[in-house]
Amino acid sequence: MIKSKLKNRNFSQEYFINFSELFKLMKPRVMSLVIFTCAVGLLMAPNVISTIDAIIAIILVSIGAGAAGTLNMWYESDLDLIMSRTCLRPIPAGKINKNHALIYGIFLSIFSVTALDFFANRLSASLLLFTILFYVLIYTIWLKRRTPQNIVIGGAAGALPPVIGWTIATNSLSLEPLTFFLIIFFWTPSHFWALSLYKSDDYRKAKIPMLPLTDGIESTKFNILIYSLIMLPTIILPYLIGFVGLIFLIPSLIITLYYNFLCFDLYNFKQDTFDTKKAKSIFRYSILYLFLVFFLFLVDRIL
Question: How far apart are CA 224 and CA 267, in angstroms?
Answer without folding.
Answer: 8
